[in-house]
Amino acid sequence: MKHRIIVLGAGYAGASAAGYLARHLHPDDVAVTVVNAEADFTERIRLHQVAAGRDLRRHSLAGLFAGTDIALRIARVTAVDADAAQVTVEDEHGTDRLAYDTLVYALGSTAADHGVPGVAEHAFHVATRPAAERLRDRLDALTGGRVLVVGGNLTAIEAATDLAEARPGLHVTLATSGAVGAWLGDKARTHMLRAFDRLGVELREHTEVTAVEADGVRTAHGGRLGADATVWAAGFAVHPIAAASGLAVEADGRITVDRSMRSVSHSGVYAAGDAVHVIGDNGEPLPMSCASAGFTRMQATAAIIADLTGRPAPRTALAYYGNCVSLGDKDGLFQLVDGEARSTGAVRGRTAAALKHFVYRGTVWNMAHPTYGLPVRRRHVKAEPARRSVDA
Prior knowledge:
The structure is a single chain. By secondary structure, the chain is of the alpha/beta class. It folds into two domains: 3-108 and 239-320, FAD/NAD(P)-binding domain, CATH 3.50.50.60; 111-232, FAD/NAD(P)-binding domain, CATH 3.50.50.60. It has nine helices and 24 strands. It has helices at residues 12-24, 47-52, 61-64, 119-122, 129-140, 154-166, 186-199, 290-309, 350-368; strands spanning 3-8, 30-36, 40-41, 59-60, 71-74, 76-81, 86-91, 94-99, 102-105, 109-111, 146-150, 171-175, 202-204, 209-213, 216-219, 224-226, 229-232, 236-238, 255-256, 269-271, 276-277, 322-326, 332-337, 343-348. The chain has a five-stranded parallel sheet with strand order 5-2-1-9-20, covered by helices on one side. Strands 13-12-11-17 form a four-stranded parallel sheet, with helices on one face. Strands 6-7-8 form a three-stranded antiparallel sheet, with no helix packed on it. The chain is globular and about 65 Å long. Residues 4-284 form the FAD/NAD(P)-binding domain. This is Oxidoreductase. Keywords: FAD, Flavoprotein, Oxidoreductase. One of its GO terms (molecular function) is NAD(P)H dehydrogenase (quinone) activity.
């Protein structure tokens, strides 16, 4: 019987993990199945552009996985039973249960509402493609009007600047409870603030939003900001599936793993991407990001292949090198950081924008070429998984 590997989620971590495993393990010995709610690969770091109305090419997962023997199941994951090694999924035909020998949990994250009333009912977000398309449709229906972006981190900055540039008829305001882009170095932050001025983005710092309403938000000091569309970009939260699965998780619901990305409670389960809690090489948890998805995917797949083939388990760097931020289509920031996440310099303007576009193209290319285009040998499974550890 073939060793059954199920990959949950086909985002930046899941899609490349599935492709890498399928290209390194022999199909006579291993069956790789990917479960994803949508048939297309979602370029999540570009969803603010979808909302802005930019026309982005779609990439079908079937096309990206062509020639790999991967079985693609378009369905929504509703539950994981880690003790029984089963996954429950739902599609248009009903409910099904899939058994696995090895599970790669890469379901990612969604917008975090932080318990603020009215977010689910009245706010838009750009954490999924359907959500970004709903926001696009809402903005298409406005002739002029006010858009309020809530948040002060990367997603909020990119959403506010791209919406303002692509839809100049809208008045865009960004409200955040602290200082926007507070982690940026002085020169990088100054450049960002100048971009806000150039694009006409109104900035409301130190403004905590306590409730979202149909036509605006309430703030902690009793004030109110009116809006025809409120975009919630105040951070990410993982889906509750992992916490309900029996897997060991952190307080925020992310799966607790060892250095191999293996669950500390269930040895046949690995996690990658936003859903994993792992300590990076600097001693701090890796942040939820596209870059972290790449490093955790590489470590998880390396460990799985080592388990199944009896080969040594290599160690992949778990680092965070910097922030790449778009400020509209032709402006941006690329800030390098040290091991303590302190700025060591920044590239600004059109050069940074070109780097960001290179990242866009490179991430999609990597989904179809997870081995970076190099020839690989599909290796046979030697025995039952040895569960080799990567040195801490």
